[in-house]
Write a structure and sequence with these properties.
single chain; alpha+beta; globular
């Protein structure tokens, strides 16, 4: 359930602060046809036409198993 008005945050430090203060935030990203074949890691457009928008809920952060 959305709380309050939509806000925009510049930089990951501001997003982290918002999550710590108010809880999860929503994020919107543009995806392309290759998104539907993407399996893991950070999605990066490689090929294919624009497919639309994808919305996710950011609930926290961390590192990968290799520490990156």
């Amino acid at each position: 359930k959305a709380k309050g008005f939509p806000r925009s945050y510049a930089g990951y430090n501001n997003i982290m602060k918002e999550i710590m203060t108010h809880g999860p935030v929503s994020a919107v990203m543009q995806v392309y046809k290759d998104f539907f074949a993407y399996k893991e890691g950070v999605y990066t457009h490689v090929t294919g036409a624009y497919a639309g928008l994808h919305v996710v809920e950011l609930v926290g952060w961390g590192t990968s198993e290799d520490g990156s």
